[in-house]
Automatic annotation (TrEMBL):
InterPro entries: Metallo-B-lactamas, Mito_Persulfide_Diox, POD-like_MBL-fold, RibonucZ/Hydroxyglut_hydro. One of its GO terms (biological process) is glutathione metabolic process. Residues 12-171 form the Metallo-beta-lactamase domain. This is Zn-dependent hydrolase. It comes from Lysobacter arseniciresistens ZS79.
Amino acid sequence: MIFRQLYEPVSSTYTYLIGCPETGEAALIDPVLPAWRRDLEVISDLELRLVMTIDTHIHADHITSALQLKREVGSRIATPGLDGLPCADVAMDDGVPLQIGSLQLLPLHTPGHTDNHFSVLTGDRVFTGDALLIDGCGRTDFQSGDARTLYSSVRDMLFRLSGETLVYPAHDYKQRRVSTIAQERNRNPRLGDDRTLEEFLEIMAGLGLPYPEFMDYAIPANRQCGRCPELLPPHLEKYREQMQPNRQG
């Protein structure tokens, strides 16, 4: 498997490139609109062909580049089937593999951050979106989020994967890149060790996080697979395409 981890600094989002060395087919997990040119450059440099974009959920902090990439190279758009987005080409269902060349990507329904959130398992790694972060988890106070459901998704599904499974989250705000199921199972301060449901509910209820500044624009845009709003307040223009590609991976 060809693999690259790419970082978008405005929303602190990780995008993951997965490529099949036999066929040259590739997929992007959680691509971000400002970085679509960078992603295509990386794919071209690796002599791959983008055939699919995969969004783990409807994001509230950035706009997906799925629609833009489809316009550019014809890649298919995969989103959670439970969201029923008319713009999607592939409706992800729990346990029904996505095929990228010779590679199988297995969607796992892991609700809680949002009601229709998915993680994606392939080989020795799992892409956990916002369900499980490094030493943390996604918030549960909007978009039909539910802390009780997230606790079950992580403890009863993700934590039952092999301890050696690599954990690649959709975000990290301290520039950490990867964890493992064993590490998160043992030391995640919100969900790990012997943390009880009641303790987790208390933690999540007390976070006191601010209202996401871009959410009112991002969610409607992402329900259209990344149709960028025509008018944005000046302080939110940073979420549009960046002039200088930021190539990391």
